[in-house]
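Q: Got a minute? One more chain.
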Amino acid sequence: MTFATKLTVLRLVLVPVFAFLAISYGLGTVAGAPDEALRRAAFWVFVTAAATDGIDGWIARHFNQKSELGAFLDPIADKALVLSALLILTFFDWGVEGWRIPLWFAALVVLRDSVILAGIRVMWSARKNVVIRPHWTGKVCTFFLFVVLGWVMLRVTELSPVYPCAFAAVFILLSMVEYIRQGLRIMRGSGVGGQESEKGGN
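A: Always. Here it is, folded:
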């Protein structure tokens, strides 16, 4: 197992740690006795796990540590981390009542990922050559998704999470439309498109 793949595995291991800390803080908030140490710990575990996402890809590319195991585990680790944070921060208040991610935003993120995965499945079933490439809308979408998560966890402003969610939703929709367009182009056999992947396997 390469060092890059070990970082990916570490990210997977940190997901349940983050979930435990985040849910514990959320339950404390609901009970009216939030433990701020839990909130800070959850945030830093999340940051550490998110940081390995970029580091493992860089190591894999620059030190020839790409592997089939890394390529398989990397997207699983990415989605597990983001979706766990998204769902926990949607169903648990992290401050005053209502300080959470709106349900409609979480549903939109899940819809986008579901559409992309379903599209890949359809193309594979049609025996099409699916070339996985990043697209700028997907990268911007991912960036603002992390902004939303940090907005809720850090609580550095009293401005409702609804506002960054509304801004991020624009790019989520744009990226979903772009990937649908690319998928249709692949199905027509008129060119090479791609679904989102921030980096190659490690």
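A: The mean pLDDT is 86.
Q: Perfect, thanks.
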